[in-house]
Amino acid sequence: MRPETEAELVDVILGAAGPLLVRGGGTRTIGRALGEVLETGGLSGVELYEPGALTLVVRAGTPLAEVEAVLAGDRQRLAFEPPDLRGLLGREGASTIGGVVAANASGPRRVQVGACRDALLGVRFVDGAGNVVKNGGRVMKNVTGYDLVKLMAGSQGTLGVLSEVSFKVQALPEAEATLVVEGLDDVAGLAVLRKALGSPFDISGAAREGGRSLIRVEGMAGSVTYRVGQLRALLAADVTVVEGAESADLWRRVRDVEAFAGRKGDVWRLAVVPTAAADVVAAEAGEAVWDWGGGLVWLLVAEGRAEAVRDAVAGRGHATLIRGEGTPVFPPEAAEVAALAGGLRDRFDPRNILNRGMMG
Questions:
Q1: Average pLDDT over residues 106-133
Q2: I want to staple 205 with a disulfide (CB 3.0 to 4.6 A). Which of 51, 216, 281, 346 is the partner?
Q3: Which pLDDT score, from 0 to 100, does residue 142 have?
Protein backbone atom coordinates (compact mmCIF):
# COMPACT_ATOMS: atom_id res chain seq x y z
CA MET A 1 0.00 0.00 0.00
CA ARG A 2 1.34 3.37 -1.03
CA PRO A 3 -1.03 6.29 -0.36
CA GLU A 4 -0.30 9.52 -2.23
CA THR A 5 -2.41 11.90 -0.14
CA GLU A 6 -3.14 12.30 3.53
CA ALA A 7 -6.78 11.41 2.86
CA GLU A 8 -5.70 8.15 1.25
CA LEU A 9 -3.48 7.47 4.26
CA VAL A 10 -6.49 7.90 6.54
CA ASP A 11 -8.48 5.42 4.44
CA VAL A 12 -5.67 2.85 4.55
CA ILE A 13 -5.41 3.01 8.33
CA LEU A 14 -9.18 2.94 8.87
CA GLY A 15 -9.50 -0.02 6.52
CA ALA A 16 -6.64 -2.05 8.00
CA ALA A 17 -7.74 -5.51 9.09
CA GLY A 18 -4.49 -6.26 10.88
CA PRO A 19 -1.05 -4.88 11.73
CA LEU A 20 0.67 -2.42 9.42
CA LEU A 21 4.43 -2.23 8.92
CA VAL A 22 5.08 1.46 8.27
CA ARG A 23 8.03 2.01 5.95
CA GLY A 24 9.61 5.08 4.41
CA GLY A 25 12.65 4.05 2.39
CA GLY A 26 13.39 1.04 4.58
CA THR A 27 17.00 2.18 4.95
CA ARG A 28 17.17 2.53 8.73
CA THR A 29 14.40 0.26 10.03
CA ILE A 30 15.29 -1.86 13.06
CA GLY A 31 13.08 -3.86 15.40
CA ARG A 32 10.77 -6.82 14.94
CA ALA A 33 7.55 -5.30 13.61
CA LEU A 34 5.37 -7.42 11.32
CA GLY A 35 2.36 -6.66 9.17
CA GLU A 36 1.21 -5.52 5.77
CA VAL A 37 3.66 -2.96 4.42
CA LEU A 38 2.46 0.64 4.32
CA GLU A 39 4.87 2.72 2.26
CA THR A 40 4.96 6.47 2.81
CA GLY A 41 7.01 7.33 -0.29
CA GLY A 42 3.92 8.49 -2.15
CA LEU A 43 3.56 11.38 0.31
CA SER A 44 6.34 13.35 -1.36
CA GLY A 45 7.17 16.95 -2.12
CA VAL A 46 8.22 20.26 -0.58
CA GLU A 47 5.20 22.20 0.68
CA LEU A 48 6.97 25.40 1.73
CA TYR A 49 10.55 26.61 1.79
CA GLU A 50 11.42 30.08 3.05
CA PRO A 51 15.22 30.44 3.02
CA GLY A 52 15.06 33.88 4.62
CA ALA A 53 13.07 32.49 7.55
CA LEU A 54 15.19 29.30 7.71
CA THR A 55 11.96 27.29 7.49
CA LEU A 56 11.11 24.15 5.54
CA VAL A 57 7.79 22.27 5.36
CA VAL A 58 7.92 18.96 3.51
CA ARG A 59 5.78 15.87 3.05
CA ALA A 60 7.04 12.93 5.07
CA GLY A 61 7.75 10.55 2.19
CA THR A 62 10.11 12.97 0.43
CA PRO A 63 13.58 11.44 -0.10
CA LEU A 64 16.18 12.87 2.25
CA ALA A 65 18.50 13.44 -0.70
CA GLU A 66 15.86 15.65 -2.35
CA VAL A 67 15.44 17.69 0.83
CA GLU A 68 19.19 18.14 1.15
CA ALA A 69 19.48 19.18 -2.52
CA VAL A 70 16.76 21.81 -2.14
CA LEU A 71 18.48 23.27 0.91
CA ALA A 72 21.94 23.16 -0.68
CA GLY A 73 20.61 25.30 -3.53
CA ASP A 74 20.32 28.15 -1.04
CA ARG A 75 23.45 27.17 0.93
CA GLN A 76 21.45 25.74 3.79
CA ARG A 77 21.26 22.36 5.53
CA LEU A 78 19.61 20.22 8.17
CA ALA A 79 21.80 21.13 11.12
CA PHE A 80 21.45 17.78 12.90
CA GLU A 81 23.36 15.91 10.16
CA PRO A 82 21.19 12.80 9.64
CA PRO A 83 23.28 9.65 9.08
CA ASP A 84 23.09 7.34 6.09
CA LEU A 85 23.15 3.79 7.50
CA ARG A 86 22.63 1.89 4.27
CA GLY A 87 26.23 0.68 4.18
CA LEU A 88 26.19 -0.35 7.84
CA LEU A 89 22.88 -2.22 7.54
CA GLY A 90 23.41 -3.59 4.05
CA ARG A 91 20.34 -1.80 2.68
CA GLU A 92 19.43 -0.15 -0.59
CA GLY A 93 16.72 2.36 -1.38
CA ALA A 94 16.30 6.03 -0.52
CA SER A 95 15.90 7.34 3.01
CA THR A 96 12.83 9.54 3.55
CA ILE A 97 12.60 12.61 5.73
CA GLY A 98 9.74 11.02 7.69
CA GLY A 99 11.93 8.02 8.43
CA VAL A 100 14.62 10.36 9.71
CA VAL A 101 12.11 11.92 12.12
CA ALA A 102 10.63 8.57 13.19
CA ALA A 103 14.10 7.38 14.12
CA ASN A 104 15.22 10.78 15.51
CA ALA A 105 18.29 10.15 13.36
CA SER A 106 21.02 12.57 14.38
CA GLY A 107 24.70 12.82 13.54
CA PRO A 108 27.91 14.26 15.03
CA ARG A 109 26.68 17.87 15.16
CA ARG A 110 24.24 16.91 17.91
CA VAL A 111 26.84 18.06 20.46
CA GLN A 112 26.35 21.61 19.19
CA VAL A 113 22.81 21.96 17.82
CA GLY A 114 20.86 19.08 19.37
CA ALA A 115 19.05 16.16 17.77
CA CYS A 116 16.53 15.93 14.94
CA ARG A 117 13.72 16.57 17.44
CA ASP A 118 15.31 19.90 18.38
CA ALA A 119 15.09 21.15 14.78
CA LEU A 120 11.46 20.07 14.33
CA LEU A 121 8.90 22.86 14.32
CA GLY A 122 5.76 20.89 13.59
CA VAL A 123 4.29 17.55 12.50
CA ARG A 124 1.15 16.21 10.87
CA PHE A 125 0.34 12.54 11.23
CA VAL A 126 -2.49 10.03 11.12
CA ASP A 127 -2.88 8.01 14.31
CA GLY A 128 -3.97 4.39 14.62
CA ALA A 129 -7.63 5.41 14.86
CA GLY A 130 -7.50 7.31 11.56
CA ASN A 131 -7.42 10.79 13.11
CA VAL A 132 -5.36 13.53 11.46
CA VAL A 133 -3.30 15.21 14.17
CA LYS A 134 -1.36 18.45 13.79
CA ASN A 135 1.02 19.85 16.38
CA GLY A 136 3.49 22.71 16.33
CA GLY A 137 3.88 25.10 13.46
CA ARG A 138 6.48 27.22 11.72
CA VAL A 139 7.94 28.82 14.82
CA MET A 140 9.77 27.21 17.71
CA LYS A 141 6.90 27.41 20.18
CA ASN A 142 4.52 24.90 21.69
CA VAL A 143 2.48 25.70 24.78
CA THR A 144 -0.56 23.45 24.91
CA GLY A 145 -1.19 19.75 25.49
CA TYR A 146 1.24 17.01 24.54
CA ASP A 147 4.45 18.12 22.86
CA LEU A 148 3.74 15.79 19.95
CA VAL A 149 6.54 17.30 17.88
CA LYS A 150 9.07 15.88 20.33
CA LEU A 151 7.04 12.74 20.99
CA MET A 152 6.88 11.69 17.35
CA ALA A 153 10.65 12.02 16.91
CA GLY A 154 12.04 8.61 17.77
CA SER A 155 8.64 6.92 18.12
CA GLN A 156 9.52 4.52 15.28
CA GLY A 157 6.07 4.80 13.71
CA THR A 158 4.30 3.27 16.71
CA LEU A 159 2.09 6.29 17.51
CA GLY A 160 1.12 7.48 14.06
CA VAL A 161 2.15 7.69 10.41
CA LEU A 162 3.78 11.01 9.61
CA SER A 163 2.37 12.89 6.63
CA GLU A 164 4.18 16.25 6.96
CA VAL A 165 7.08 17.67 8.95
CA SER A 166 8.48 21.17 9.31
CA PHE A 167 12.00 22.18 10.31
CA LYS A 168 14.14 25.08 11.26
CA VAL A 169 17.16 24.82 8.97
CA GLN A 170 20.67 26.27 9.15
CA ALA A 171 22.93 28.23 6.82
CA LEU A 172 26.01 26.42 5.54
CA PRO A 173 29.17 27.69 7.23
CA GLU A 174 31.82 29.57 5.30
CA ALA A 175 34.55 27.20 6.50
CA GLU A 176 35.17 24.06 8.50
CA ALA A 177 38.28 22.48 9.94
CA THR A 178 39.03 19.33 11.92
CA LEU A 179 41.84 18.91 14.40
CA VAL A 180 43.15 15.33 14.24
CA VAL A 181 44.98 14.05 17.32
CA GLU A 182 46.85 10.76 16.96
CA GLY A 183 49.08 8.64 19.16
CA LEU A 184 46.78 8.45 22.20
CA ASP A 185 45.09 5.42 23.74
CA ASP A 186 41.33 5.41 24.06
CA VAL A 187 41.22 6.82 27.59
CA ALA A 188 43.49 9.75 26.74
CA GLY A 189 41.90 10.23 23.32
CA LEU A 190 38.41 10.53 24.81
CA ALA A 191 39.72 12.90 27.48
CA VAL A 192 40.95 15.19 24.68
CA LEU A 193 37.43 15.25 23.23
CA ARG A 194 35.89 16.16 26.58
CA LYS A 195 38.48 18.89 27.09
CA ALA A 196 37.65 20.43 23.72
CA LEU A 197 33.90 20.24 24.38
CA GLY A 198 34.42 21.96 27.73
CA SER A 199 36.16 24.88 26.04
CA PRO A 200 34.45 28.09 24.81
CA PHE A 201 35.39 27.40 21.18
CA ASP A 202 32.02 26.12 19.89
CA ILE A 203 32.86 22.57 18.84
CA SER A 204 30.54 21.05 16.21
CA GLY A 205 31.93 17.52 16.32
CA ALA A 206 33.95 15.44 18.80
CA ALA A 207 34.58 11.85 17.79
CA ARG A 208 37.17 9.07 17.92
CA GLU A 209 37.61 6.59 15.09
CA GLY A 210 40.50 4.49 13.88
CA GLY A 211 42.75 5.52 16.77
CA ARG A 212 42.30 9.23 16.02
CA SER A 213 40.49 11.88 18.02
CA LEU A 214 38.61 14.30 15.76
CA ILE A 215 37.48 17.79 16.77
CA ARG A 216 35.51 19.93 14.31
CA VAL A 217 34.89 23.68 14.23
CA GLU A 218 32.71 25.51 11.68
CA GLY A 219 31.74 29.10 10.92
CA MET A 220 33.23 32.23 9.38
CA ALA A 221 36.73 31.63 8.05
CA GLY A 222 38.41 34.02 10.46
CA SER A 223 36.61 32.55 13.43
CA VAL A 224 37.54 29.00 12.41
CA THR A 225 41.22 29.97 12.07
CA TYR A 226 41.18 31.62 15.50
CA ARG A 227 39.47 28.69 17.23
CA VAL A 228 41.80 26.15 15.65
CA GLY A 229 44.77 28.08 17.01
CA GLN A 230 43.25 28.32 20.48
CA LEU A 231 42.41 24.61 20.52
CA ARG A 232 45.94 23.69 19.46
CA ALA A 233 47.28 25.55 22.47
CA LEU A 234 44.62 24.16 24.81
CA LEU A 235 45.07 20.52 23.87
CA ALA A 236 48.87 20.60 24.03
CA ALA A 237 49.02 17.56 21.76
CA ASP A 238 50.37 16.58 18.37
CA VAL A 239 47.65 18.00 16.12
CA THR A 240 47.11 17.86 12.37
CA VAL A 241 44.48 20.14 10.83
CA VAL A 242 42.41 19.21 7.77
CA GLU A 243 39.93 21.52 6.09
CA GLY A 244 37.12 21.71 3.56
CA ALA A 245 36.22 18.54 1.65
CA GLU A 246 38.83 16.46 3.48
CA SER A 247 37.30 17.44 6.81
CA ALA A 248 33.78 16.74 5.52
CA ASP A 249 34.86 13.25 4.40
CA LEU A 250 36.14 12.44 7.90
CA TRP A 251 32.80 13.35 9.44
CA ARG A 252 30.79 11.54 6.81
CA ARG A 253 32.73 8.42 7.75
CA VAL A 254 31.97 8.92 11.45
CA ARG A 255 28.33 9.86 10.80
CA ASP A 256 27.62 6.77 8.70
CA VAL A 257 29.75 4.37 10.81
CA GLU A 258 31.58 3.38 7.65
CA ALA A 259 34.26 1.53 9.66
CA PHE A 260 31.81 -1.32 10.32
CA ALA A 261 30.10 -1.52 6.93
CA GLY A 262 30.32 -4.98 5.41
CA ARG A 263 32.10 -6.53 8.40
CA LYS A 264 30.98 -9.57 10.37
CA GLY A 265 29.53 -9.18 13.85
CA ASP A 266 26.74 -7.42 15.69
CA VAL A 267 26.64 -3.64 15.85
CA TRP A 268 25.34 -1.95 18.99
CA ARG A 269 24.52 1.69 19.58
CA LEU A 270 25.36 2.60 23.16
CA ALA A 271 24.29 5.83 24.85
CA VAL A 272 26.58 6.07 27.88
CA VAL A 273 28.11 8.46 30.36
CA PRO A 274 31.10 9.81 28.38
CA THR A 275 33.58 9.19 31.19
CA ALA A 276 32.55 5.50 31.18
CA ALA A 277 32.80 4.99 27.42
CA ALA A 278 36.33 3.54 27.38
CA ASP A 279 35.56 1.14 30.24
CA VAL A 280 32.42 -0.16 28.53
CA VAL A 281 34.31 -0.91 25.33
CA ALA A 282 37.21 -2.49 27.19
CA ALA A 283 34.81 -4.76 29.09
CA GLU A 284 33.49 -6.14 25.79
CA ALA A 285 36.82 -6.18 23.97
CA GLY A 286 34.99 -4.89 20.91
CA GLU A 287 35.89 -2.30 18.29
CA ALA A 288 34.36 1.12 18.73
CA VAL A 289 33.58 4.36 16.97
CA TRP A 290 32.91 7.06 19.55
CA ASP A 291 30.82 10.15 18.84
CA TRP A 292 29.41 13.02 20.90
CA GLY A 293 32.57 13.16 23.00
CA GLY A 294 32.09 9.52 24.03
CA GLY A 295 28.40 9.79 24.84
CA LEU A 296 27.54 7.70 21.76
CA VAL A 297 29.44 4.47 21.11
CA TRP A 298 29.03 2.34 18.01
CA LEU A 299 30.32 -1.07 19.09
CA LEU A 300 31.21 -4.01 16.84
CA VAL A 301 31.29 -7.33 18.71
CA ALA A 302 30.92 -11.02 18.00
CA GLU A 303 27.39 -12.28 17.46
CA GLY A 304 25.31 -13.39 20.44
CA ARG A 305 26.77 -11.03 23.04
CA ALA A 306 23.52 -9.28 23.97
CA GLU A 307 23.51 -10.11 27.67
CA ALA A 308 27.17 -9.18 28.08
CA VAL A 309 26.76 -5.89 26.24
CA ARG A 310 23.75 -4.86 28.30
CA ASP A 311 25.55 -5.89 31.50
CA ALA A 312 28.50 -3.71 30.49
CA VAL A 313 26.33 -0.59 30.14
CA ALA A 314 24.08 -1.27 33.14
CA GLY A 315 23.91 1.80 35.36
CA ARG A 316 25.90 3.85 32.85
CA GLY A 317 23.54 4.06 29.88
CA HIS A 318 21.60 1.82 27.53
CA ALA A 319 22.25 -0.35 24.48
CA THR A 320 20.28 -0.76 21.24
CA LEU A 321 21.01 -3.55 18.76
CA ILE A 322 21.33 -1.90 15.36
CA ARG A 323 22.52 -4.89 13.35
CA GLY A 324 22.16 -8.49 14.52
CA GLU A 325 19.65 -11.21 15.33
CA GLY A 326 18.10 -13.08 18.23
CA THR A 327 17.51 -10.54 21.00
CA PRO A 328 15.18 -7.63 21.79
CA VAL A 329 16.52 -4.69 19.82
CA PHE A 330 15.68 -1.95 22.31
CA PRO A 331 16.77 -1.97 25.96
CA PRO A 332 14.27 -3.15 28.60
CA GLU A 333 12.13 -0.34 29.98
CA ALA A 334 11.68 0.40 33.66
CA ALA A 335 8.18 -0.40 34.87
CA GLU A 336 7.22 3.26 35.14
CA VAL A 337 8.50 4.05 31.64
CA ALA A 338 6.76 0.97 30.20
CA ALA A 339 3.48 2.05 31.77
CA LEU A 340 3.81 5.57 30.34
CA ALA A 341 4.75 4.26 26.87
CA GLY A 342 1.88 1.78 26.95
CA GLY A 343 -0.54 4.51 27.87
CA LEU A 344 0.60 6.65 24.94
CA ARG A 345 0.22 3.75 22.51
CA ASP A 346 -3.26 3.04 23.86
CA ARG A 347 -4.15 6.69 23.30
CA PHE A 348 -2.76 7.07 19.78
CA ASP A 349 -3.04 3.50 18.46
CA PRO A 350 -5.90 1.84 20.36
CA ARG A 351 -6.05 -1.09 17.91
CA ASN A 352 -2.31 -1.73 18.22
CA ILE A 353 -1.80 -1.92 14.46
CA LEU A 354 1.10 0.48 13.82
CA ASN A 355 4.53 -1.16 13.80
CA ARG A 356 3.38 -3.70 16.38
CA GLY A 357 6.44 -5.10 18.14
CA MET A 358 8.81 -2.46 16.75
CA MET A 359 9.86 -1.18 20.18
CA GLY A 360 10.01 -4.64 21.76
A1: 95
A2: 216
A3: 44
- 188, pLDDT greater than 90: yes
Residue 284 pLDDT more than 50?
yes
Parallel, antiparallel or unpaired: strands 120-127 and 132-136: antiparallel
Among the listed residues 242, 276, 263, the one whose alpha carbon sits nearest the alpha carbon of residue 89: 263
**What CA–CA distance (Å, rounded) separates 321 from 249?**
26
How high does pLDDT run on average in the chain? 92
Query: Could you tell me which residues come within 8 angstroms of residue 138 by beta carbon, excluding any fewer than 6 positions away?
Result: 48, 53, 55, 57, 121, 122, 166
The mean pLDDT value for 24-51 works out to 91
140 pLDDT exceeds 70?
no
Closest CA to 50 of 129, 118, 138, 131: 138
Give the count of alpha carbons within 13 A of 64, CB side only: 24
Nearest CA to 26 out of 65, 58, 61, 69 is that of: 61
| pLDDT given at position 360 | 58
Q: CA dist 126 to 46, 118, 147, 291, Å?
A: 19, 22, 16, 34
State mean pLDDT over 234-262.
95
Query: Domains in the chain, please, with CATH?
Result: 6-171 (3.30.465.10), 175-255 (3.30.70.2190), 258-323 (3.30.70)
**What is the residue type of 182?**
E
Is residue 11 predicted with pLDDT exceeding 90? yes
Q: What amino acid occupies position 139?
A: V
Looking at residue 143, its pLDDT comes to: 42
- Kindly give the residue spans of alpha helices, DSSP state H, lying in the chain: 6-14, 64-72, 86-89, 97-103, 110-113, 116-119, 148-152, 186-197, 221-235, 244-255, 277-284, 306-313, 335-348
Strand order in the sheet with 266-272: 239-243, 175-181, 212-219, 203-209, 287-291, 296-301, 266-272, 317-323
**DSSP codes joined into one string, 293-337:** GGTEEEEEE-TT-HHHHHHHHTTTEEEEEEE-SSS-SSPPPPHHH
All residues at 6 or more sequence positions from 253 whose CB lies less than 8 Å from its CB, including other chains: 209, 259
**The pLDDT of residue 58:** 97
pLDDT over 70 percentage in the chain: 97
SS3 assignment, position 29: coil
211 burial type by CB count under 10 A (0-12 exposed, 13-18 middle, 19+ buried): exposed
